[in-house]
Amino acid sequence: MKKRSITLIIGLMSVALMGVMAMQYYFIRESFKQKSQLFDEAVTAALASVAGKIEKQEIFEFAREQDRINQEKFKADQAMRERNEQLLASQLTIQEKIKELQRQQFDYQQRYREEEENLKALVPNAIYVDNAFYETYIRRKRYQAYIDFNVVNNYLGEGYIDTDIKLTAKRGVPLVPAKDDSTRFIIPYFRNNRVEAMQTATLIPRVHRKIADELQELESQLVVLNAKKLQQATTLFDTLAIIGGKSEHILKDIESSILLAKKPFRERLNIKYLKKELDAELNKRDIYVPFNIEVRDDQSYIIYETLQSSNPKTKRQFAKYSTKLFENDLNSSPGLLSIYFPNKSSVIRDTMSYMLLPMIALLALLIGAFAYTLSIIFRQKKISEMKTDFMNNMTHEFKTPVATIMIASESLRDPEIAADGKRVNRLANIIYDENIRLGNHIERVLNIARLEKENLKIEKVDVHINAVVSGVLDSMNLQLQRANGILHVDIAASNDLVIGDELHLSNVFFNLVDNAIKYSKDAPEITVKTYNAKHNIIVTIADNGMGMTKDQKEKIFDQFYRIPTGNVHNVKGFGLGLSYVNDIVKRLNGKIQVKSEKDKGTIFELTFPLKGATPDREV
């Protein structure tokens, strides 16, 4: 097939494949848009339904509460009078007790002031000291050295000076808690502006603790009674008629609506009820996906949200749907309910999976068929080229012996040559040798044909590998000498008996050694070894020839394939030798491996199971 035809086929198939892909893309995109529109309509309807239910629920609860209040109003009014009388009596009693205790507390404080004034009159420099300071520094004599008396003179004007003595500690130590609530004073005695001694004066507490506690308790009781009295002064609205589909009555009093509208938005909204109704309405419309809730008031402040993010771009990436809350208020709507779907696209794709999977499978099948067709076309083109090369090589190989036979035959027709027996004998030998050579070429081609049709007869007899290898090397010794080659032989296998065909095994080794000679640029150096490994015998044939690349190494067992040698055509053959070698080795339950590096040489490793051993099928 011509290159132009292949290009045309590839172009047409590519256009057809791209057309199918474009149609599938258009169909998927339109389906996605339709599904997205249906999703938007379903979510919007669910939000509107939830907003209506929330408003109706608020009205129902308010009406129910008003009914309950109206039923209890009469009883509450009667009970209120009795409670007010009781509260008033209790208040009067408590107030009398408070007055009596306040009088006792005042008398006690007067007594304390008299004692303090008497002390100041006797000792003007008496210093008040805190009980914790007293217990820490004064009562414990070892810490009295840390006490510091600071004399501070405050100028009062017109020649008057007020002297004040402050008591401090030079060094801080953990304070000892006070043991009582008595009032204590320190009386220092100075000499030469230094304190030589000090005395403690103890007075009664400034406040009578028991009386103070009783006063506080009675005052708390009085506050509680006043609070109860204020609670009973709450005003109630008239009964609210039930509306919202359950009843067609009109509101009896417009003040009920005003009360609802003035109620704080946070108190009007039941978040638990909101989430429950949202889930129910979305599930009713076959929407079972996670979503985030956001509720804002009329000042756009967020009242509640489930998505906590400081980045405003995060919410913009999600699909957002909103509706107003309490839209029927007398004034503007006080709230906005929004929900976000972070995975809207993936949800819609999941609903389209029943369409996507068959379409993807069909597209993969088309691409696979396209790729397979191209591989077949290129493979057939490659086989065609290889067969053409094979025909050229075969023609060249056949032409040489045929031309030689023709020249020898023409020479025999010459009477002068025909009269010379020696010359006739030599020409006859040439014709015979060339016929043998021609027959060998034909036999090799026929063997490959038989291998393909599996008609090649292979005997399964006992064969000694060492003997076969040695015989092949002996027969090729002359050819190796002509190439000035060096042969290294190491026949080390102690057990070499296998089941095989001696003739075909000889041909296998002959082909490998022949290739080692032909594909050596300079004087060939060939190493042949045999050795045992487990239940196998291994034969290696290594050379220092031109070697192979990785790509060439993968193709050497293909029929008609020959390693390219550039513009030099000194390597003869049909490209059938290694294909034949590979086939024979496999038929004899063996393995063949190749190790090669460009310009460094090649190693062929053949493994055959010994007689009586289980064949190793691993590659």
UniProtKB/TrEMBL annotation:
Q: List the catalysed reactions.
A: ATP + protein L-histidine = ADP + protein N-phospho-L-histidine
Q: Cellular component per GO?
A: plasma membrane
This enzyme's EC code(s):
2.7.13.3
Q: Gene3D superfamilies from the entry? A: 1.10.287.130, Histidine kinase-like ATPase, C-terminal domain (3.30.565.10)
- The organism's superkingdom is given as Bacteria
Q: Which GO terms describe its molecular function?
A: histidine phosphotransfer kinase activity; phosphorelay sensor kinase activity
InterPro entries on file = HATPase_C_sf, HATPase_dom, His_kinase_dom, HisK_dim/P_dom, HisK_dim/P_sf, Sig_transdc_His_kin-like_C
Which keywords does the record carry?
Coiled coil, Kinase, Membrane, Phosphoprotein, Transferase, Transmembrane, Transmembrane helix
Coiled-coil residue windows: 84-118
Does the record's keyword annotation contain Transmembrane? Answer: yes
Instruction: Give every Histidine kinase domain span.
Output: 393-612
The answer to whether keyword Transferase applies is: yes
Can you tell me where the transmembrane regions are?
Answer: 354-378
Supply the name of the protein.
Answer: histidine kinase
